[in-house]
C-alpha cells in the first residue's frame, strides 16, 4: 500500500491514453438525457475539439494511441467505455504477461458493436481480454464507471453497470471493489459525479448517488471538492489528471479557486460537440497505465463493499 495512501501525492496513472478518432460521430439514438437527434455534431468542429484534447494531453507530458472509429458505432468516440485496461507491477509472475483488459458489456445494444473492435485493438497491443458478460448475456459493465483510487477500484452502478458486475471485477482481478449506487439520470456514469485528483483529493457530486452511497463516498475521500448538481452538470468532473494538470471541459469559478489553491494547473478544452452525445474529456480518453500492485492493491479472492 506504500505510496497510494500518502498525502497529496500525484496519481501514478493517467499519462497513457487510448482515444478513438471521430470519423463517424453522430447522434443516432438517445441513451442518455443529453442526446437529441435534432442536434447533430458538426464534423469539422468535432475534429478540431478532438485534436485539441490530444494536444492538451501531449502538452501535459502524456501520450495518445489512436483507434479508428467503426462506421456503425457512432458512440465509439467515447473510448473510456471500451474496457478497463490494467497492467501488472509483477510482469514476470503474471500469467497474463502483464497487461489485461476487462471489456465493457454495454447496457444498450446500440453500443455493443464497439466491443469486437476494442477486443482486437487490445489483443494487438498485448492485452489479455476478459469479459464479464457479452451480447446482452451476463452482467453489464461500462468502464466509465470504474476508477482505481487509493488502492481500490471505485465503481458506480445503476444506470449502466450492474451491481453483479462488481463481484466479477473483484474476483477476476483480485482487488477490493467499492460500489456506489448512481441515481441521477444525468450522471449515468461514475465519471460524471466523481473525479480523483491525487492521493487524497477528488471531486464528488453527492447528488449523483443515493443517500447511503453519497455519504460513503464523502467518507472515503479525505479532502473532497464537493460539487453541486449544477456544477457537475457542466461536466467539470469529466476531466482527466496528468500529475498536477487537470484537463477539463469546463470549470465553474468556485471549483477553479479550490483546484488552484491545491496547486493544480487547469487546462480547459471545450468539447461542445461531444457534449451532444453526453460525454466530455474523460469519456473520450481511456487510461492504459493503471497498474495492479501499485494503483490497485492485490486482495486474493477479491472483496466488494457496498454502501
Ligand atoms: N453517448 C454515450 C453513452 O451514452 C456517452 C458516453 C459517455 N462516456 C462516459 N465515460 N461517461 O454511452
Can you describe this structure in just a few lines?
The protein has 307 residues and is α/β, with parallel strands linked by helices.
Textual characterization of the structure:
The chain has 307 residues and is an alpha/beta fold. It is 23% helix and 25% strand. It has helices at 43-59, 114-124, 163-173, 211-220, 229-232, 253-261, 272-275, 281-284, and strands at residues 16-21, 63-68, 83-88, 99-103, 128-131, 133-134, 137-138, 146-149, 152-157, 176-181, 194-196, 201-204, 223-226, 240-242, 245-248, 265-268, 286-287, 291-292, 303-306. It is globular, with a radius of gyration of 18 Å. 50% of the residues are buried. Mean pLDDT is 95; it is low at 1-7. Bound molecules: arginine (ARG). Arginine binds at residues 31-32, 75, 78, 80-81, 111, 144, 189, 191-192, 277-279, 283.
The whole-number mean of residue pLDDT values reads: 95
List the secondary-structure elements in sequence, H or E: EHEEEHEEEEEHEEEHEHEEHEHHEEE
Structural class based on helices, strands and sheet pairing: alpha/beta
Total helical elements: 8
Overall form: globular
State the total count of DSSP E strands. 19
Report how far apart the termini are.
Answer: 23 Å
Largest sheet: 4 strands, mixed
Share of helical residues: 10-25%
**Estimated share of beta-strand residues:** 25-35%
Low-confidence stretches: 1-7
Radius of gyration: 18 Å
Provide the spatial order of strands within the biggest beta sheet.
5-4-3-18
Bound molecules: arginine
